[in-house]
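Consider a protein example.
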Amino acid sequence: MKARRVRKKAPRRSRAAHTRDLEIARQIQTSILPRRVDVEGIEISAGMVPADEVGGDYYDILPVANGCWIGIGDVAGHGLGAGLIMVMIQSMVMTLVRANEKANPRDVVCLLNRLLHENIRGRLNQDDHVTFCLMRYGGDGQVTFAGAHEEILLWRTTGKYERIATTGTWLGAVRDIDKATQDQTLQLQPGDLMILYTDGLIESRSRAGKQFGFERLAALVEQHRSESADNIRKRILARLRRWTARQEDDVTVIVVRCQGVYWSA
């Protein structure tokens, strides 16, 4: 009688191996973030606080002649896969922007989406997507942006705030987003504050299960809007730590203040 082959079960991955994976992903996230950025005409402060379970927050600030590019996004997923996609975004955006510093954000976002779709769906065989917004800040105070991400909080020197939707669609889900993606613009005046963030901020919950929310963020910025951009960012994160029962997602915050130093055309 022929002996039956017994298929051995693959060993389960140890907790230590899982922890190593998360640490690698965390290192990937933090190692490529900008350390210090100086852009003439604006005061800018940015930072990310990783969660215990690694997600895929992305941000970057790329100074160019007469301004800078600012990107912010969040990969839907966790662990090494999300970290890998975040690295892809960072390298692709930097390459595309350096190739044409005066490009329309819409064109960069559409091309970035096609590249991500090919890599995420075609090569990694994953179904992740990315919320993403890319901005080009000009020396005249104009901000042109494209992509679908969280609402922009804009505090005017008049003492009123605006919540500006970022229209469009997620990246990586479908190959062609050209029809759904358009450039939007806003005009910063000297003293205006612009706050960018990921959903880990406004969706953080208290012990009672209540979300931090947009309105609480706006009120906090109003209270401290006369302070430096760096202090405002630190106050947001400090308030969030007191509010949050347990951090379950990465939190990224970018604070931009227009200083009114404009370049001529």
